[in-house]
């Protein structure tokens, strides 16, 4: 599960002058934790609701990916800018604005009467989450000035981030089954409003003295380039991989992203300092994060549809079915944190990536007679354990050889690459699954059934769907295998090179 992170090392705050610790700091931790929980919840709470929402709003199964991507893409691409704005404008102020905006976006999504309204609301949620997540983490850093207290605060914050995904899956199942899928969005409103008023009353303001302008052109170029690439990856389902339309979008997006790199290398206040990519260990951490995000996000998309439409699980049962994944990540991260200090990050990342590749290849055997206990559950646990290894190790690798001034942004890029990789991976793997599905039916002279619930009854449609998933899982396994190769060839940091103490806690 993706975790959110700050973008810059907080400095210039009220603690710099040696002010007394905030007497409300532990209450502040609750407020900040609730804000973080909402961001993490919305990465998973709508997953279980997707089939019901699609049925009511007329969203085709091939387009379900946009419910996830519409949130993850602006969240990932604007996360660095959001953190910079929070540091300069004021972390408390940005938190309050982001909470109110998140509530408004959730209300719009909950009231959606057409597909585009839901997707627009999800996109707006992603925009405000990109400001809320780094502001919350920065507030935590400046609120707790004592090293021991800060470590405890970050442990609580990390538990919220890790457990929030599981809570989202369960809550999404309960709300979808016993209320309505719309409550998966509307539930954010009372949470956001409560957190907003508590933040006004409890949190202290802090900010960094601005030393330059915001890198708005960089943010625009990054967002447009990534959005164009995602859209380009979805086009083959309509026009084919050989179409000029497809490659025009992909080529144009690559050009825009190249312009982003050029701009960042020349900007006086870059969103992404190119210097942090110069170290091979950090570059490896970011590449691995992107590849892992691509494979992991797609797993949730496909299994959500499989469990509810093919296996006919209720939303609540589907939510419980995903819990072992969350538990596996937490356990894997705990074991991985110890192994990193004993054997070094290269072995841990390589092992985690290999476990993920094995699990996804195992999952590619999915068929109409596949059972949850026999295939899905063990493969899911193996992958989750591997992902836990990777998340823990890449967080540390991202801070190898980094200066204090760049520590925040270097750490944040790990989360950004996971979100961006998830957006790109869902688009690419959904297209591969859909085109394989259509080819399977065409070869047998069968027309696809538009309604996924009706298609679940037809054995040929089910076989075609699972064949598409199997091919997509094999490609995802290849992405994890590539991550393993990158880890072996690029990661050279030894366990003695890893940061310790607060630097690690910052993520």
Automatic annotation (TrEMBL):
Keywords: Cell membrane, Membrane, Transmembrane, Transmembrane helix, Transport. InterPro entries: EmrB-like, MFS, MFS_dom, MFS_trans_sf, Sugar_transporter_CS. Signal peptide: none annotated. The chain crosses the membrane at residues 26-49, 64-82, 94-117, 123-142, 154-174, 180-202, 214-234, 246-263, 284-309, 321-340, 347-364, 376-399, 471-491. It is found in: Cell membrane. Residues 28-495 form the Major facilitator superfamily (MFS) profile domain. It comes from the Bacteria. GO terms for cellular component: plasma membrane. It holds the Pfam family MFS_1. NCBIfam families: efflux_EmrB (TIGR00711). This is DHA2 family efflux MFS transporter permease subunit.
């Amino acid at each position: 599960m993706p975790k959110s992170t700050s973008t810059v090392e907080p400095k210039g705050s009220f603690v710099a002058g040696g002010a007394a610790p905030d007497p409300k700091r532990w209450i502040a931790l609750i407020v900040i934790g609730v804000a973080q929980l909402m961001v993490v919840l919305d990465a998973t709470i709508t997953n279980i609701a997707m089939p019901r929402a699609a049925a009511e709003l007329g969203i085709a199964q091939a387009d379900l990916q946009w419910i996830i991507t519409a949130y993850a893409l602006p969240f990932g691409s604007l996360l660095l800018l959001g953190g910079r704005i929070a540091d300069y404008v004021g972390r408390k102020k940005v938190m309050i604005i982001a909470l109110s905006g998140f509530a408004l976006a959730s209300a719009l999504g909950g009231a959606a009467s057409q597909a585009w309204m839901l997707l627009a609301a999800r996109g707006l949620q992603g925009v405000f989450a990109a400001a809320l997540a780094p502001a919350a983490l920065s507030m935590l850093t400046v609120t707790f000035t004592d090293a021991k207290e800060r470590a405890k605060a970050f442990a609580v914050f990390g538990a919220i981030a890790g457990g929030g995904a599981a809570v989202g899956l369960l809550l999404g199942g309960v709300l979808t089954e016993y209320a309505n899928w719309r409550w998966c969005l509307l539930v954010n409103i009372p949470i956001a409003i409560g957190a907003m008023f508590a933040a006004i009353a409890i949190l202290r303001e802090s900010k960094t003295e601005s030393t330059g302008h915001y890198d708005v052109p960089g943010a625009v170029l990054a967002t447009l380039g990534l959005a164009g690439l995602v859209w380009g990856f979805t086009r083959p389902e309509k026009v084919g991989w050989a179409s000029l339309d497809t490659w025009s979008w992909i080529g144009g997006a690559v050009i825009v992203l190249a312009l982003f790199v050029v701009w960042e290398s020349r900007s006086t206040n870059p969103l992404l300092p190119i210097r942090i990519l110069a170290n091979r260990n950090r570059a490896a951490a970011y590449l691995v994060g992107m590849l892992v995000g691509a494979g992991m996000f797609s797993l949730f998309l496909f299994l959500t549809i499989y469990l509810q439409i093919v296996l006919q699980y209720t939303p609540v049962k589907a939510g419980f079915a995903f819990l072992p994944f969350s538990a596996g990540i937490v356990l894997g991260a705990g074991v991985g944190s110890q192994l990193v200090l004993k054997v070094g990050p290269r072995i841990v990342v390589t092992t985690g990536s290999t476990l993920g590749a094995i699990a996804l290849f195992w999952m590619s055997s999915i068929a109409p007679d596949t059972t949850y206990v026999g295939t899905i559950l063990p493969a899911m646990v193996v992958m989750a354990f591997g992902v836990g290894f990777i998340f823990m190790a890449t967080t540390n690798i991202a801070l190898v050889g980094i200066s204090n001034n760049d520590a925040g942004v270097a750490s944040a890029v790990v989360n950004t690459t996971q979100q961006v990789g998830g957006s790109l991976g869902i688009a690419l793997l959904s297209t591969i699954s859909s085109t394989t599905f259509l080819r399977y039916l065409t070869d047998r002279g069968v027309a696809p059934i538009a309604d996924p619930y009706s298609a679940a009854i037809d054995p040929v449609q089910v076989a075609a769907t699972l064949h598409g998933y199997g091919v997509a899982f094999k490609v995802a396994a290849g992405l994890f295998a590539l991550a393993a190769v990158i880890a072996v060839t690029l990661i050279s940091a030894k366990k003695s090179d890893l940061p310790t103490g607060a630097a690690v806690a910052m993520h």
